[in-house]
Structures are given as structure tokens and as C-alpha cells.
Amino acid sequence: MKSDSSYPADHISYQLVIRVHKDIRIVAGALGSCNFSAGDYVYTGSAKRNLDARLRRHLSDTKKLRWHIDYLLQHPHAEIVRIETSTLSECRWNQQLQGSIPKPGFGASDCKKHCGSHLKQISALAT
Ligand SMILES: [Zn+2]
């Protein structure tokens, strides 16, 4: 998917809806190995400045792997299928989202609100 829209200036948070097409296992840097069953996941993050650039980075295939989510998104069976943006703080938005946590700590290195993870599984795919 391409990012070619710009987002309202007061939107500071984003959610990536990620489809994992098959059961996969990745090693996400220091967090170690993580298993993801086929399904849809939502990653919640924020960029107080330049949301466009951040989202373009997430969509890019050529980047240095830095965040946990980078390791998931570079997997050939994982893809971003939708992006939402919001004025809500990332932690509040993440906590409002119903879902299960596949890997405690994933995407939550900078989280100070005890989210547990900034990646949640919202549905499973039949395999
Ligand atoms: Zn949080």
C-alpha cells in the first residue's frame, strides 16, 4: 500500500492494520523471537512531528531495522492493509482497542502507561 495522503495537522497518533497471511516467527531485535499466527494485527504509534514521514517509513521496504515493528513488517507474509490516524494519544487509543497481546513488550519500549504492548491481534485468519 502507498501513502500519498497527508493527515490533519492535529493528528499525532496512527494505527497500522497489519495482515499476517501465514503463521510466522520473527526475531525482533533484543525482544527475541516472536510467533504470530495468521490474522490481523493493529500497531499503535505516534509521531508528534511529521506523521507523513513516519508512515512512509513504515511502508518502505528499504530501511534499517530499528523498532520491533520493522522486523514484523519486513516479513514477506506481513503487510500493512490500512492506516488510521487520530488526535488521541497513542497509549489511550491502544488501550481502547480490543484485542489480544501476541508478545508482551512488543512496540512498548517507550510506553509509560502500562499498555503491555503496542501491537494487538484483533482477529484470526482461518488457515
Ligand atoms: Zn502505551
* Poorly predicted segments: none
The number of domains is: 1
- Helix-strand sequence: EEEEHHEHE
For the sheet with most strands, the description reads:
4 strands, antiparallel
- By DSSP (H or I, 4+ residues per run), the number of helices equals 3
Cofactors, ions, other ligands: zinc ion
Q: If you compute it from the alpha carbons, what radius of gyration comes out, rounded to the nearest whole angstrom?
A: 14 Å
Number of strands: 6
How much strand? 25-35%
Strand order of the largest sheet: 5-1-4-6
Overall average residue pLDDT: 94
What is the terminal-to-terminal distance?
23 Å
Verbal overview:
The chain starts with 12 loop residues before the first strand and ends with a strand. It is α+β, with helices and mostly antiparallel strands and 127 residues long. It is built from 3 helices and 6 strands; from the N terminus they run E-E-E-E-H-H-E-H-E. The model has no long low-confidence stretch (mean pLDDT 94). The protein has one domain (13-124). Strands 5-1-4-6 form a 4-stranded antiparallel sheet. A two-stranded antiparallel sheet has the order 2-3. Helix content is 17%, strand content 31%. The protein binds zinc ion (ZN).
